[in-house]
Amino acid sequence: MAPRFSTIGVVGAGAWGTALANASARAGREVVLWGRDADAIATLARTRRNDAHLPGVELAEAVTPTTSLIRTASCDAVLLVVPAQASRAAAEQLSPHILPGVPLITCAKGIESRTSLFMTEVLEQAVPHAVPAILSGPSFAADVAAGLPTAVTLAARDAGLAEALAGALGSSSFRLYHSDDVRGVEIGGAAKNVLAIAAGIVGGRALGASAAAALIARGFAELTRFGRAFGARSETLTGLSGLGDLILTASTAQSRNYALGLALGRGRHSPGGALTEGALTAGVLVAMAQARGIDMPICRAVEAVLAGRSDIEQAIGSLLARPQKAEA
Q1: What integer pLDDT is reported at residue 273 of this predicted model?
Q2: Confidence (pLDDT) at 31
Q3: Spatial CB neighbours of 258, under 8 Å, sequence gap ≥ 6
Q4: Burial 67-81 (b: 16+ CB within 10 A, else e)
């Protein structure tokens, strides 16, 4: 009997899309990897290498690069591996081709800035006949593509579907935990990116390991307050997609959000001019928190720095000058 999800479509042939294509192939699936650039896809099909995004990584034999959205959307499940702010447009492109009931799994970590919608809510609007899910957790594309041990969370509202998808995509090196707490997984991925920028600023200012640890602990308290206000479960927030992902992205310049904070802390601009998910999410995250009366001083300080309303020294001073309070 054929497995329930024998073919996997991956929309987005960047580093993370390529890594997830390889991981899906390692799990025994046939994979179709879509990219919009015909020349790049032709090169990828010929060389089996995506050196522009993942130098030195070979594309698995079971992965077929394509520029055909129809072919990609005809798979048993589809991973949408594009940035958060581009997810709606990509999903709308997919919508005419994807069959009713097919799982559409967002792999973006953010909140749509224009609408204040979480990623699965964007999918529900853009592709109402698909079944939204989300994959998130502490993972770098290079590690996943190379088959290094990694664990993430896959969430869908239907717990049985989440379990089936986790089983279809997981392998000995890519472990998927399943959950039906979609909102908790979404919030962990979005908020930790903003906090990782703050951690990078601490590193860039050379404020020390003690300050870095305090930043992660108090930042996680902010993430938890935000998550609980939106119905997330505590065990999700303390799991891979929340605390786990925060620890990873707030501790190394391999994270683009941390690298941005590091550059800002050193008085430089964004490295390479790259836009990061955290920078694009900070404004909407803070606005949503303020609308619900959620105290998020670290995220608020990051947003003020990114918006140019505060410099680094002012932001640090405002945090250190906050009134003494009980830890909660």
Answers
A1: 44
A2: 98
A3: 196, 197, 199, 200, 203, 249, 250, 251, 252
A4: bebeebbbbbbbbbb
Query: Is 192 a catalytic site residue?
Result: yes
Catalytic residue among 183, 192, 225, 300: 192
**What are the residue boundaries of the structural domains of the chain, listed by start?**
7-180, 188-320
Which of 3.30.70.260, 3.40.50.10330, 3.40.50.720, 3.30.300.10 would CATH assign to domain 7-180?
3.40.50.720
Cα(first)–Cα(last) distance of the chain, in Å?
52
Which CATH superfamily does the domain covering 188-320 fall into?
Answer: N-(1-d-carboxylethyl)-l-norvaline Dehydrogenase; domain 2 (1.10.1040.10)
Write out pLDDT tens, residues 20-33: 999 999 999 999 99
pLDDT in tens, 192-202: 999 999 999 99
